[in-house]
UniProtKB/TrEMBL annotation:
PROSITE patterns: PKD (PS50093). Pfam families: DUF2599 (PF10783), K319L-like_PKD (PF22352). It comes from the Bacteria. Residues 319-332 have a biased composition (Low complexity). The keyword Transmembrane helix applies. The keyword Nucleotide-binding does not apply. GO terms for biological process: carbohydrate metabolic process. Residues 299-336 are annotated as: Disordered. Residues 351-413, 437-514 form the PKD domain. Keywords: Membrane, Transmembrane, Transmembrane helix. Gene3D superfamilies: Immunoglobulins. This is PKD domain-containing protein.
Length: 677
């Protein structure tokens, strides 16, 4: 109990009673603040208990007849409360905080009107605390726009008599979204007090660990654009926010991304306020220790640049019109053919000045290169250049009174290599010697100012180099002898960028001789092979191939039904390709060596990357690099010269090739199981 003794002089009783009433009210208000603070500490809100007084954009208090506190209410728009109290829940938004005196026989009635109209009543509370605090939601949840709100709270006794009210308060419910991304989780736009006499619109985002983590200079613009575009789409800024204010808010976000990553970390939210002036990019980039990404606050000493006012200067002797200020923004880099954003700004005391972008190519830029601005009259725009190198872009501001003012930035354009597509030849194309093998290849390059050179390495010791024509590398080549040739097609631009592709071409010579052999390999493969072109005009060889392949379930014997081609090189290497009823096969022969490859025809006509059997797995398909295995038993015979007819064969193939061929009709099937070769 508080006791106050006062000595009253005669004739001053009325005045002293007024003084006593004011003292009593002041002491009561102090006690109420202490009790409310205890109540806020004891009653949790969201996941934690706030430990500081709540700031709100509008509030009202009701006192009773004896100056006792009956109720207090404050409105918290958008993410305002989370901005003020980090330990509260970011999903709590657009709500009232109401403090009610317990068990006083008075019921509080809170009402509001806007999108999501509603009301709330609460009577006596329980517990040992004299005051309790409640949360009342307006139901303006996950709204994409701001909504005006008018609200009031009143107190009523048990007999229905009104004991007082707050009067009508005006505010704005904030927009809200929890549909963030990997850079931020929540966003909100709401109106808040900026100074004692001025409100502002605030865009608040809650950054993720990724956004506040590692300093990556190349991602600052991309991160800022990503957060800005998504947040302003989910929670749009109201039309009352001017283009100049939007630009200031974008710069604040850019500053938070850049300098937060550099270690000057701010709070748990990034708050972008429209009331902050639109300062130059130089100030944004270099003044962070002064402004902390929130420039123009009271008491900051006016560090930022604000253009002078017309007729400014003490005594009116200043210039009639000041020259505009202009900033071309930070230097940027980009791949050639792609657009990059220029963050220019311009201001003038007489309003927004006229602006124009121009460019100058550096000494490292090839003649003929050009740059195009999306909007050469807009301070913030994009530019696209047709060739790599360094360009100086200039933003000029003209207020129509003073001499134009300019600022420059550097655009570094990186070279992008051309991309090649080869239409011909296809892999495993088959051609006869001394006939044209065509190469048809096209390419794309984002650099329209580049020149290109084509190069084809034919794998027979020769190379063709020639200028590209109309975006293509087309040519032909004649091979003089048989082989499996891995040719390489390459296109290169004049800045060193290049792309290439390989194709293997099979070249046969029907005038070559005979490939034959029989034997086994150390892994258990057994084979017999005989192949020859019957005449100098033949396009497919005659002969037969049989492979007895070891498998986990026994042997699988594959007998040819068709030979597709035979290659015999001048240095006595041979390869034959064909098929059985169900399998494709390849046989590589050298003196005392053999490689067998089989695969199901369901996998295609050419061997897959992992065939069902390969005696030299992983080796190249090219005959020169096929790596056949040394025979365990048997022999191979390769005749590089051509003679008409089929010669006699060594045992165990039979007396003549003709006798072997006579048996083929009965052998045109695949044998499975434990059948011996």
């Amino acid at each position: 109990m508080l006791t106050t003794a006062v000595w009253l002089q005669p004739g001053r009783l009325v005045r002293e009673r007024l003084v006593m009433k004011r003292v009593k009210r002041a002491l009561l208000h102090t006690a109420v603040v202490l009790v409310m603070a205890l109540g806020l500490l004891a009653v949790p809100f969201g996941p934690g208990a706030p430990q500081e007084a709540q700031a709100a954009t509008s509030a009202g208090t009701i006192y009773g007849e004896d100056d006792e506190l009956l109720g207090f209410a404050s409105f918290n728009p958008g993410l305002h409360y989370y901005h003020e109290h980090e330990d509260s829940d970011p999903d709590e938004h657009n709500f009232f905080r109401v403090t009610d005196r317990c068990n006083d026989g008075v019921e509080l009635h809170l009402s509001w009107s806007s999108a999501g109209d509603g009301e709330w009543r609460h009577g006596d509370c329980t517990g040992w605390l004299p005051y309790r605090t409640y949360t009342v939601h307006t139901q303006h949840q996950s709204k994409p726009d701001m909504a005006a709100i008018a609200w009031a709270m009143s107190a009523w006794d048990a007999e229905g008599d009104r004991q007082g009210g707050t009067g009508v308060q005006s505010d704005w419910q904030g927009s809200f979204s929890d549909d963030g991304d990997d850079l931020y989780t929540h966003s909100s736009v709401y109106e808040d007090a900026f100074t004692d006499t001025r409100d502002t619109v605030v865009l608040t985002v809650i950054p993720t660990d990724k956004a506040t983590g590692v300093y990556l200079p190349d991602t600052i613009d991309a991160y800022t654009d990503q957060i800005w575009d998504r947040a302003t789409e989910k929670t749009p800024l109201p039309a009352s926010v001017s283009a100049d204010e939007r630009e200031s808010m974008y710069k604040q976000l850019w500053c938070h991304v850049k300098f937060n990553l550099e270690g000057i970390k701010g709070g748990h939210t990034w708050d972008l306020e429209a009331a902050h002036p639109n300062v130059s990019w130089e100030r944004v980039n270099n003044g962070v220790k002064d402004h902390g990404c929130n420039w123009g606050n009271q008491g900051d000493g006016g560090w930022f640049d604000v253009p002078p006012t017309d007729g400014g200067g003490d005594g009116g002797d200043g210039p009639a019109d000041a020259a505009p200020s202009v900033d071309a923004g930070p230097d940027v880099s980009v791949d050639e053919g792609s657009q990059v954003t220029l963050e220019g700004t311009a201001a003038d005391d007489g309003g927004t000045p006229a602006t124009t972008w121009t460019y100058t190519a550096g000494d490292d830029v090839d003649e003929g290169a050009t740059c195009t601005f999306a909007d050469a009259s807009a301070p913030r725009t994009t530019v696209t250049c047709t060739d790599d190198g360094t360009y100086t872009v200039t933003l000029t501001a003209d207020d129509g009174v003073n001499a134009p003012v300019s600022d420059t930035a550097t655009v570094t354009v990186r070279n992008v290599a051309p991309t090649l597509q080869v239409a011909k030849p296809a892999d495993w194309d088959v051609h006869r010697v001394e006939t044209d093998v065509p190469v048809k290849a096209s390419f794309t390059d984002p650099d329209s100012n580049d020149t290109h050179t084509c190069k084809v390495t034919w794998d027979d010791g020769s190379t063709s180099t020639f200028p590209a024509k109309d975006g293509a590398c087309d040519t032909t080549h004649v091979y003089d002898h048989a082989g499996m040739n891995t040719l390489t097609v390459e296109v290169a631009d004049d800045d060193g960028g290049k792309d290439s592709a390989e194709r293997m071409v099979v070249v046969y010579d029907p005038r070559a001789g005979l490939a034959s052999g029989a034997g086994t390999l150390p892994d258990g493969l057994a084979f017999t092979a005989l192949a020859k072109y019957p005449s100098a005009d033949s396009t497919v060889p005659a002969g037969a191939v049989s492979l007895s392949v070891p498998t986990a379930s026994g042997r699988q014997t594959i007998v040819s039904t068709e030979l597709e081609w035979l290659v015999i090189t001048p240095d006595a290497k041979a390869a034959v390709k064909g098929r059985s009823a169900t399998h494709g096969f390849l046989g590589y022969l050298q003196s005392g060596r053999f490689r067998g490859v089989t695969w199901p025809l369901s996998q295609g006509n050419i061997p897959p990357a992992a065939p069902s059997y390969d005696s030299t797995p992983g080796a190249s398909w090219d005959l020169d690099e096929a790596q056949p295995k040394q025979l365990a038993t048997g022999l191979t015979v390769i005749d590089t010269g051509w003679l008409p007819g089929l010669p006699s064969l060594p045992a165990p193939l039979g007396t003549t090739a003709g006798e072997l061929l006579d048996t083929l009709p009965a052998l045109r099937l695949d044998l499975h199981g434990d059948t011996e070769a």
